[in-house]
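subagent[fold] <- orchestrator: predict structure for attached chain, return tokens only, no commentary.
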Amino acid sequence: MRYVSLDLETSGSDPLRHQVLELAAVVEDTRRTASTPLAELPSFRRALRHPEITGTAGALALNARLLEELSDKTKADAPDICGPEEVLPQLREFLLAHGFKLDPKNRVSFTIAGKNIGVFDIPFLRQLPGWGTIIRAEPAVLDPAAFYLNWHKDSRLPSMLICQARSGLGEPHVAHEALADALEVVRLLRPFYERPFYKEVSGEAH
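subagent[fold] -> orchestrator:
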């Protein structure tokens, strides 16, 4: 299947008060590119320039590098910086260029993946001009937490760091950079392409 791993960096946790500062998306096709190095996957990244930014101290400190980039006047015309009204039209063109199709309502529709994508990122995406009208995600989402859940010991879905530790794929680390974190979600999902849960469950049933 084909999915889009998407990650945001924001100025806070309230989509009605705070802004998207960075959006990144990575296209993965589990039938064709599972052996493709992560760095070679089609990727899209934009920093979003706002007239004024409202945020929490913690979120703004975490995104200090982004704020510096956005305030740098020498990067005013940088191709990976745009306004919030431009980012989804640009993402739409990126997805169309990589083989995604328009639905009957002329929207690009795709399966979306990400850590906490359903409860955190999608509410912010809904605030961006064009979400739901030119671009939309399918209702079902892919979150790596479900693949790394310990059903007997966990009291909540595991964090990104716990997922990384359980994967055994390297030192746990969250970059808090949209493109790096979107690629990390793909890395965490890849081990399950060849051993989907339904086969493991059906095997145990016999």
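orchestrator: received. Logging for downstream: The chain has one domain: 2-194. The CA atoms of residues 161 and 184 lie 11 Å apart.
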